[in-house]
Design goal:
Layout lengths: L6 H14 L4 E4 L2 E4 L13 H56 L6 H28 L7 E3 L1 H18 L2 E7 L6 E3 L1 H22 L2 E8 L6 E8 L29 H11 L3 E6 L5 E8 L3
């Protein structure tokens, strides 16, 4: 070993240390971030601390640059969505108003009344989706209330159960029933989880079927509730991982994806002061992890 750390010795020392005590590395879209780790065995080697600090600083600067680029793209997407949502809101309100007037008419056959109720219910759901889009775009402020995340997961899975069965996809649930509540907007979180499930479902359908595992738990520390969605598909390509949450980025064929679902999910989770990460499972398939702060 050199008295001063040359490039060859630096690589040798880092590789040896990694074998003895691997550093904490987490693959996080939209960028790769390395946590600083202190190796007791490396103390006392001249120049090593400076070299590690310089490497960590370079990686951090790259992370900040990528995060800023993603924020700019999300802002542009927000402006676009706000314009579309405002244009949709006016005709939707007109539909709701006229259907409500028809429902109040006394002499309407029962069959037609049921159909009018269905139209009203679906138009009202569309109006709430528009309102959620305005929240994502920054036009409205989401109302956060203490909610049970398991209930959101269960309701969202129920929406995709039939489609998954038809595609030969099994859904496995592992829900921690003792978890605390989180501060959230039920509809927005349902939309976020829905987008992640749709992404997994489409990948597995193209893969010929498989399994989606959805779990909830409270990690050590108890400050967040974690939702994980793992599929048994082909996983996420290394080249796609850093761009996964960028607006309009998609790996799907033309007509199968807009590239907006995961970007919207990322924005929703961020507005809930949570984190959304993606990676590949050691046994295969993609894993999406949502951490949401516990309601205080």
């Amino acid at each position: 070993m050199c008295t001063k750390l040359c490039a060859v010795c630096f690589i040798t020392v880092v590789v040896a240390a990694a074998a003895a005590a691997p550093p904490a590395i987490e693959s996080v879209a939209p960028a790769t971030r390395y946590k600083a780790v202190e190796y007791p065995r490396l103390k006392g080697i001249p120049g090593l601390s400076d070299a590690l600090l310089a490497m960590h600083l370079t990686l951090y600067q790259g992370y900040v640059k990528n995060a800023n680029l993603l924020s700019e793209k999300l802002a542009a997407l927000g402006q676009f969505i706000a314009g579309v949502a405002h244009e949709l809101n006016n005709p939707l309100q007109a539909v709701l108003g006229h259907v409500e007037l028809l429902r109040r008419q006394g002499r309407i056959p029962p069959g037609i009344r049921r159909e009018l109720s269905l139209v009203f219910r679906e138009a009202d759901r569309a109006a709430r989706i528009v309102d959620n889009l305005l929240v994502f775009a920054g036009g409205h402020t989401a109302t956060l209330r203490p909610i049970a995340l398991n209930a959101v997961v269960t309701q969202t899975l129920a929406l995709r159960a039939a489609a998954c069965r038809a595609a030969g996809i099994d859904i496995v649930r592992r829900l921690d029933e003792s978890q605390p509540r989180v501060a959230g907007n039920r509809l927005l979180l349902q939309q976020a989880l829905f987008n992640v499930l749709i992404n997994a479902e489409q990948e597995l359908a193209a893969w010929g079927g498989g399994r989606i595992e959805v779990s909830t738990r409270v990690p050590a520390g108890g400050d967040v509730v974690r939702v994980q969605v793992r599929d048994t598909g082909p996983g996420i390509a290394a080249a796609a991982l850093p761009r996964l949450f960028e607006p309009f980025f998609t790996t799907k064929d033309v007509g199968r994806g807009t590239g907006l679902g995961l970007a919207i999910t990322y924005g929703i989770v961020k507005d809930h002061r949570g984190t959304l990460t993606a990676g590949n499972h050691p046994d295969g398939g993609a894993v999406f992890t949502i951490d949401l702060p516990v309601s205080r």
